[in-house]
Design brief:
By secondary structure, the protein is of the alpha+beta class. 46% of the residues lie in helices and 7% in strands. Helix 1 packs parallel to helix 3 and helix 14 crosses helix 15. The longest helix is centred in the middle third of the chain and has 22 residues. It starts with 5 loop residues before the first strand and ends in a 14-residue tail after the last helix.
Length: 365
């Protein structure tokens, strides 16, 4: 039986935090929407394990937008009144190709901004690589923090926007569009596994822009929907966007699932992974190269992500995390963590304001 699509609880919590920071009482929301649990009440250890159905998340998404009376959730220079997305969809639905739909989107939002007396950059929001193989779609919002002041909430809000833009493009052409890579301003605040809930591909941090890259030929793909199918889509939006899945699942995601996050046991070898995936070692190596990575890099990413997840739990000392990661010596863990993230475990905790329960001597330079 095919698993129903779901959304990590951490993103439901993010929506509720945004509503609270805009002065709204979020206590009645859970019971009002009949959600199965309260995302704000989950502990740090419970949060990674909980998910909401796409339908429940869509209800929460729309409710918070209604509370804010802003479909941009406060991330833009102007408030986008309720119904803006609906009219935007009708403005582009008859575009002959995805490229023209993207161009028309610029004209649509330029009208909104200029009506408020604000300048709007009408340059195209995509660029094609010199060889013509790839197209990069840039973040089109105008309220981007500098990389120095970018906090987790701002960062995830923009990444969420990019994810919705990608999913909407996929919906328009009736086919999932694989993403080659994602560029993010600012440093990696959350563990990489957290970002993968939005994009399961290489994610580059400390970049000059927010963007995602796809194969350029998708820009010329015709749109497949009519006003009737658009009406059905809008009736349950954004459900249709979150329900879009990549049927050709990334080989990286499958490998990460096999490795897991228990590093007190031996990590499976390359040939063993190939056997479990029922493909030859040569084919596995070729598919990893196609996705721009290697088995060693996937293993390192898994260990880094697990280490960051453990470090965000205030009840664990750094030495205990080192043990969970399979290191006999804490100093070896410190060296590895700094190699993966450019900072020490202690610095990571301080930057992310995680209360420390470990002693000063746990921090090894």
């Amino acid at each position: 039986m095919k698993k129903e699509p779901s959304v990590p609880a951490k993103y439901a919590r993010l929506l509720l935090k945004i509503a609270r920071e805009h002065g709204h009482d979020i206590n009645p929301v859970v019971s009002l929407l009949d959600l199965p649990f309260n995302p704000m009440a989950l502990s740090d250890s419970e949060l990674p394990e909980q998910e909401l159905s796409v339908l429940d998340f869509s209800k929460l998404y729309n409710h918070v937008a209604m509370l804010l009376q802003d479909e941009s959730f406060g991330t833009g220079r102007i408030r986008l009144p309720m119904g803006t997305f609906r009219m935007f969809c009708y403005a582009i639905i008859h575009s002959p190709s995805l490229k023209i739909a993207l161009d028309r989107s610029i004209d649509f939002y330029a009208i909104l901004y200029e009506a408020k007396g604000l300048d709007f950059n009408k340059d195209r929001r995509y660029r094609v690589s010199d060889g013509g193989e790839f197209a990069t779609l840039m973040y089109s919002g105008l309220k981007v923090e500098s990389d120095d002041s970018m906090n987790l909430q701002n960062q995830l809000s923009i990444i969420n926007y990019l994810s919705l833009q990608h999913r909407f493009c996929s919906w328009l052409i009736g086919a999932y569009i694989p993403v080659h890579e994602v560029n993010v301003m600012g440093s990696e605040i959350l563990s990489n596994s957290g970002y993968r809930s939005y994009f399961d591909c290489p994610i580059n941090f400390n970049q000059k822009e927010y963007s995602f890259t796809i194969k350029a030929h998708f820009l010329d793909t015709p749109l497949v929907h009519t006003e009737e199918s658009l009406h059905n889509f809008l009736t349950t939006a954004p459900y249709g966007l979150f329900a879009i899945v990549n049927e050709d699942e990334s080989i990286i995601k499958k490998i990460r699932s096999l490795i897991g996050n228990n590093f007190t046991r031996k990590i499976p070898g390359f040939d063993e992974v190939a056997e479990k995936l029922n493909i030859s070692s040569r084919t596995l190596r070729r598919r990893l190269e196609k996705e721009g990575t290697s088995y060693q890099r996937v293993k390192d990413d898994c260990r880094r992500d697990a280490a960051i997840d453990y470090l965000t739990r205030s009840g664990m000392s750094i030495n205990a995390v080192a043990h969970q990661m399979g290191f006999d010596e804490p100093s070896a863990f410190h060296r590895s963590f700094k190699k993966w993230t450019d900072i020490t475990p202690g610095e990571f905790r301080k930057r992310n304001a995680i209360s420390d329960v470990y002693s000063e001597q746990d921090e090894v330079v």
